[in-house]
Amino acid sequence: MKMQKDGASASKRRDLTCRLFAAAAMTVSAVGLTAAPAAAQISGDVVKIGIVNDQSGPLSDLAGPGSVVAARLALEDFKAMTPSLNVQVVSADHQNKADIGVEVVRRWYEADGVDMVVDVGNSAVALAVQSIARDQKKLVIYAAVGTTDITGSQCSPTGLAWLHDNYNLVSGPIRKLVAQGQDKWFFIAADYAFGQNMVKESQSALAAAGGTSMGAVFHPLGNTDYASFLLQAQASGADVVAFANAGSQLVTSMKQWNEFGMNGGPQRAVAELMFLTDIHGMGLETAQGLTGVTAWYWDLNDETRAFAKRFFDLHGAMPTAPQASVYSSVLHYLKAVAATGTDETNAVVAEMRATPVDDFYAPGATLRADNKLVHDFSGDVPPDVEKGSADVAG
């Protein structure tokens, strides 16, 4: 399963503007590279990479400090190939607040000489950061941002999506389950840009597949009591209850789903965004029967297992898909800097686009004109998840 499929007309329309915008930026970049190769240089003689994400809140387990570890492993591998390039990694906690994220990133770009920001995670923070990066003509790579607005209505030639988006996450499970007759859906979603956009994309995909939305309810970020939301879902008459939340919110939702006995009822639970840490957090018994999609899993092959061992030795847990995405995006970025001899954004992005990804995360993947990395999702159900009867659709 590819990260993006071009068959959906709605997706094509949504991406058209960004494709044209990115294509224009690529043309300008190519002209600049041809006209002035002698001017290529590293600003301040150091490449600075900033990791901003939730370091302590509900999304911290799936990325957080582990993303910093992943970036440092990428730097370690890059330095083995190119020891002469001076690279620094800095990090900050945006606390899932857009104003804090903007303050951090603006300071990094304007005062601290940061060349590239990576991860971000929270969609509301990402949309705010996107504007800063566009204005500053600086690169930002989203390791795990769901909202399709990042590469749609709010697209930027300097904003790259490396893992997934909400259209990609919801379209497969919806088509699969509607075809099986489970065509009435109810949504429980986080009440910020990510959850709102995921419900919108879900309802559009559901209508296209011939299904029906029975309603949606939205809860605050970091909510801990889902009783009223679950009761509304139960009363909706839906075949499927889809959770458009993540991290500890999804874990708590599913624990309460089981406490209310809904796991033994007629409705099917779908996690529209789920990570390895979520399954660990809820336990296999609670995760039993849960359907979801994953973009990457650490136990896929010898290369992913080798990285996972290195990561575990430093972090004490196996890497999630967002953390592997951080490793991949940082390494690909640094390779492009080394190849061009500059950290100038347009030149580096042009090189990143021209060169396929070469790592354990997305071998052979390419950066599309709308700034989405096109790569395979995991095709196999992870063995330890399969034993717990969780359904992870690849």
UniProtKB/TrEMBL annotation:
Keywords: Amino-acid transport, Signal, Transport. The lineage of its organism: Bacteria, Pseudomonadati, Pseudomonadota, Alphaproteobacteria, Geminicoccales. The keyword Phosphoprotein does not apply. Belongs to the leucine-binding protein family. PANTHER family: LEUCINE-SPECIFIC-BINDING PROTEIN, PERIPLASMIC BINDING PROTEIN OF ABC TRANSPORTER FOR NATURAL AMINO ACIDS. Residues 1-40 form the signal peptide. Residues 47-377 form the Leucine-binding protein domain. Pfam families: Peripla_BP_6 (PF13458). It comes from the Bacteria. This is ABC transporter permease.
